[in-house]
């Protein structure tokens, strides 16, 4: 079988995605046939395991492996094999690895996808190969629309950002400045927050976008402060929240009376303790807190911490639930691995996740789950996002608006 290289194009006139779609279709379609006869079902898990976003990869991998450890490594009479690949947060690499996993390893499912550009680059492979692609981390709304084979177990930024706006309106927060990472999820967060906040009569003073790579937040924080807001709405991806918090403190904004609000990425459970008491009182909205009450989450957190010596965050639970979805689909198909059958089985699945109740919307293939308003508090000497309110079973507002 030919392997189509996913690296630099020798024909720069073609975009890499067009090139892959054109060349790979036949090879991928042929490659899928033997997978259906296999007794071992392979799952390709592609994540950034090195570089600045390695914390995302480590969390998702740990969540996925914990699920397998707790539920056994065979389903419906088939043995499962997890193949983990490191894309180093390079989209060309993610796409090439996905192609190799499909063509050479004959995986039945592609999974992982730490950041939005990595998921977007791989979508055409899922479509061509007819292989389900379970997005366990990336969170830009449009991702699931890029291939009919994509399902998501992470979240969408608009789900959280709209609820932040509602909370800020209800609590009469006043003028807000937005400060987001300048790519898909940040722009989603900014747009959804701004539209909802303005519709409710709230004022947005300035919209600041910080480059994703090696960000220096200091000049943006200064501009945010100069706009004299009551609150700064922040989105930074997991892996950058500790740097953000450090620069927030260095600029003295914690002592200025300006509130920090946003989706829960900025109070990431993985690093919250290390950010320190400056985070006390920060209010966010998100779908997962390690402090979420209930037996399912308690068991998950204890087992995750024991196995990995770190606290699970929203990425960890995305990996855990993604693996649950794969198990549930294989159970429903009685171990059959054709992509269309697996995908049909994934649509509409509902279960009790450590985050609370969760469903895969049969229409959009996107996640439906509770949003929780949370406040950072100290419990047993550690900082946690303590949930104070629940907005039940929120669908992605971007897709709801398109209905
Ligand atoms: C992405 C989204 C997040 O919420 C996050 O914390 C990290 C990455 C993304 O889609 O790239």
User: Count of DSSP helices?
Assistant: 13
What value does the Rg take, in angstroms? 21 Å
Order of helices and strands: HEHEEHEHEEHEHEHEHEHEHHHEEEEH
- Could you tell me how far the N terminus lies from the C terminus, measured between alpha carbons in angstroms? 42 Å
Number of strands: 15
Q: Describe the biggest sheet? A: 9 strands, mixed
Structural class of the helix and strand makeup?
alpha/beta
Give the secondary structure arrangement, pairings included.
Blueprint: H1 16-32, E1 40-47, H2 54-71, E2 74-75, E3 78-86, H3 91-103, E4 109-112, H4 116-129, E5 133-135, E6 150-152, H5 157-170, E7 176-181, H6 184-199, E8 204-210, H7 218-226, E9 231-235, H8 241-250, E10 259-263, H9 272-275, E11 283-286, H10 295-308, H11 314-332, H12 339-346, E12 350-353, E13 356-360, E14 367-379, E15 382-394, H13 397-402
Helix pairs in contact: 1-3, 1-4, 2-11, 3-4, 5-6, 11-12
The structure holds 3,4-dihydroxybenzoic acid (DHB).
